[in-house]
Amino acid sequence: MSFPVIAGDVGGTNSRFRLIGPDGAALGETLTLKNAAYPSIIEALTAAYPADVIRAAQTLVIAVACPVDEPPFHLTNAPWVIDPAAVKAALGLSQVHVMNDFMAQGLACASLPLDTMQQIGGHPREEAAPRVVVGPGTGLGVAQLIRACGKWIVIPGEGGHLDLGPRTEREFALWPHLEMRGCRLEVEMAVSGQGLENLYRGLRRLDRHPDREEAVSAAQVTERAHSGEALAVEAVTLFTTILARFCGDLALLTLAHGGVYLAGGMTAHLIDLVRGPAFRQAFEDKPPFSGIMAEIPLYLMPGGTPALDGIAAYAADPQAFEVERAIHVTR
């Protein structure tokens, strides 16, 4: 691909863009835009960069929060529809590469130095062993990484849409009060921004709170928890407990001795709970495999924009990864 490249991380709420050079280094600052302020990614890009910068770049590589199969791509938790051919034509680009957002997080997991991450328990990682990346934000993203033939194979999926069941007596009482998709409760409906809102609303319904149907955002729930409101504290605690259990489920899936890596905006907002001993305890609570779980390390991905770092690593050395089938390229 030609350089410079415009790299983009297009989430459900925000889009982040960065110009990168042939060595993967950033050319200028990362720009963050609110999706709701623009009708489409075309307007967002033209707001982010002057026309001469876009013409000079010629190549756009974006990670999007939805499955990447056949275009156009419909964001799962936002109204944008991304048609690579229309973007290419409107902006005068020579090529547009589109990958799933957790493909980009997986690329970051494979390429970022270990010392940029914070380990939470477990043994040192086995460098060639399977890895898992999990990230709650507007939605819940998941990717697996497998090392084969000297390359990292990144397998993005839709693990956030797996079914979620209760474990404790309180959870069994709570489940009927939670919003579901169809006839089932997905993990994302508890472990994401909308998931935290769902848990808090459900707890207020369960306890017959007089304002139980009041719309309360995830940010407000977090603020109320920090101020000591009991139900908000319970919602945030349950959120992190379910996240830890889910990470443990995914670790068991591949015996991820290469580590489970936590990304996503919600993780950053609740970082003190994620670092606490209860999180690790819930992660390991998988009898009869608790001994194996105690060995598997958890890592906090670095703050900032790891997805853009992953895109930069791919752009600088695409041959280091086996990802061609998972990236849609329009030329």
UniProtKB/TrEMBL annotation:
Signal peptide: none annotated. The keyword Transferase applies. Keywords: Kinase, Transferase. GO terms for cellular component: cytosol. Coiled coil: none annotated. One of its GO terms (molecular function) is D-glucose binding. The keyword NADP does not apply. Gene3D superfamilies: 3.30.420.40, 3.40.367.20. GO terms for biological process: glycolytic process. PANTHER family: GLUCOKINASE. Belongs to the bacterial glucokinase family. This is Glucokinase. It comes from Zhengella mangrovi.
